[in-house]
Design goal:
The protein has 281 residues and is α+β, with helices and mostly antiparallel strands. 11% of the residues lie in helices and 27% in strands. It contains four helices and 15 strands. The strands form two sheets. Strands 2, 3, 4, 5, 6, 7, 9, 10, 11, 12, 13, 14 and 15 form a 13-stranded mixed beta sheet that branches. Strands 1-8 form a two-stranded parallel ribbon. A hairpin with a 4-residue loop joins strand 4 (76-81) and strand 5. Reversible hydration of carbon dioxide.
Length: 281
């Protein structure tokens, strides 16, 4: 089997999975982020995420509105380990848990939340602020219900809104993280899933709702450029032990060799001509 034929087979398999809504699929074939564009040309696009946010290049936009989240705790369904992250899934069959305001037009339905983290406390976030990379980053993913379904929304430039919250290591743990972290042992290995009812993710929000916003992409393949990013300025404080709990997850299945699930973040991408706006001075 020639390398050209193998590349073609990999590309066709990845495209098949991507069209059915599976993200991060190129990682199955051990391609690093710098190789994603070979199977997903969009990964080399001009609206890619994450980016570095530099205050000297940010535009204060006085027209930006406050954002509001209204989440129904009963919408929380399951928590899982997909080999790439820890994810909590929510019922998004109607406008039950929504994000509105800020740079958004209309409401966006909460679909899932997940985390990115590093192999140590000194890195792990995807976005970088003034040269600082935090220990982790929480993403709450919402989709625009003016489109027929989630898969339709990811094909639209205004289809997805992601609320991003940095995790900064401090001396004290964040009590609101306990509910998620106490389920880690139940989802230790790839493919594990557990019920996760009655959870309101707004308890994870920082006090300040100040934010930066820009148009970008998914940070996993196929890297569709459909996301309005709302990146909160204030991080939430977590303990080193809490970050270690996330790092105790395995990216392999139960009967496979244990391989720590760490460094699931994408390097920053060129900003090009994009404007990054701030809701604050």
């Amino acid at each position: 089997l020639s390398s050209a034929n193998l590349s073609f087979i990999v590309k066709q398999c990845n495209l098949y999975l991507a069209r059915r809504g599976f993200h991060d699929v190129s990682l199955i074939f051990f391609l690093g982020p710098d190789q994603w564009h070979k199977n997903y040309p969009t990964a080399k696009g001009r609206h890619q995420s994450p980016i570095e946010i530099n205050n000297k290049e940010v535009h204060y936009d006085r027209s930006l509105l406050p954002w509001f989240a209204s989440y129904d705790p009963g919408a929380a369904k399951t928590i899982l380990n997909n080999g790439k992250t820890c994810r909590v899934v929510f019922d998004d069959s109607f406008d039950r848990s929504v994000l509105r305001g800020g740079p958004l037009q209309g409401v966006y339905r909460l679909r899932q939340l997940h985390f990115h983290w590093g192999s140590s406390d000194d890195h792990g976030s995807e976005h970088v602020v003034n040269g600082v990379r935090y220990a982790g980053e929480l993403h709450l993913l919402h989709w625009n219900p003016k489109y027929s379904n989630y898969l339709d929304a990811v094909r639209r430039t205004d289809g997805i809104a992601v609320l991003a919250i940095f995790l900064q290591v401090g001396k004290t743990p964040k009590p609101e993280m306990k509910r998620i972290l106490e389920e880690i042992n139940a989802i230790k290995t790839k493919g594990k899933e557990a019920p996760f009812p009655n959870f309101d993710p707004s308890i994870l929000f920082p006090k300040s709702h100040d934010y930066w916003t820009y148009h970008g992409s998914f940070t996993t393949p196929p890297c569709e450029e459909c996301i309005t990013w709302i990146v909160l300025r204030e991080p939430i404080i977590v303990s080193s032990d809490q970050m270690a709990k996330l790092r105790s997850l395995s990216k392999n299945a139960e009967n496979e060799p244990d391989l720590p699930l760490v460094d699931n973040w994408r390097p920053t991408q060129p900003r090009y001509f994009r404007m990054v706006s701030a809701s604050f001075l």
